[in-house]
């Protein structure tokens, strides 16, 4: 099981565009239309499934919100930060 990171580690490693929201990291990706966002959400889901670490994904008309946390660790871990970077690579 991944170890929960402390506040300083999270602040140092948080990728650009991501924000901390308590025990989660969050990013909202913007798109020109709904289907572009749905396609991105599908790519995120495929990456997450390969990594066996599944985010919360909310699809709105022109944006997709992604939230990551490690429930078993009780907060944010290296795995969450790694996935955030992988998702950014898909964008």
From TrEMBL:
InterPro entries: PCD_sf (IPR036428), Pterin_deHydtase (IPR001533)
Gene3D superfamilies registered for this protein in UniProt: Transcriptional coactivator/pterin dehydratase
A GO term for molecular function: 4-alpha-hydroxytetrahydrobiopterin dehydratase activity
Cross-referenced Pfam families: Pterin_4a
EC number in record: 4.2.1.96
Biological process annotations from GO: tetrahydrobiopterin biosynthetic process
Keyword match ATP-binding: no
Keywords annotated in UniProt: Lyase
SUPFAM superfamilies, sorted: PCD-like
Catalysis performed (reactions): (4aS,6R)-4a-hydroxy-L-erythro-5,6,7,8-tetrahydrobiopterin = (6R)-L-erythro-6,7-dihydrobiopterin + H2O
Family: Belongs to the pterin-4-alpha-carbinolamine dehydratase family.
HAMAP family in the record: Pterin_4_alpha
Protein name: Putative pterin-4-alpha-carbinolamine dehydratase
Taxonomic source organism: Haloprofundus marisrubri
High-level lineage: Archaea, Methanobacteriati, Methanobacteriota, Stenosarchaea group, Halobacteria
């Amino acid at each position: 099981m991944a170890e929960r990171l402390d506040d300083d580690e999270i602040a140092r490693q948080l990728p650009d565009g991501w924000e901390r929201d308590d025990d989660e990291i969050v990013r909202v990706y913007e798109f020109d239309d709904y289907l572009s966002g749905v396609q991105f959400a599908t790519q995120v889901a495929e990456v997450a499934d390969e990594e066996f670490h599944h985010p919360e994904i909310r699809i709105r008309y022109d944006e997709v919100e992604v939230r990551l946390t490690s429930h078993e660790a009780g907060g944010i871990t290296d795995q969450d930060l790694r996935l955030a970077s992988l998702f950014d690579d898909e964008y």
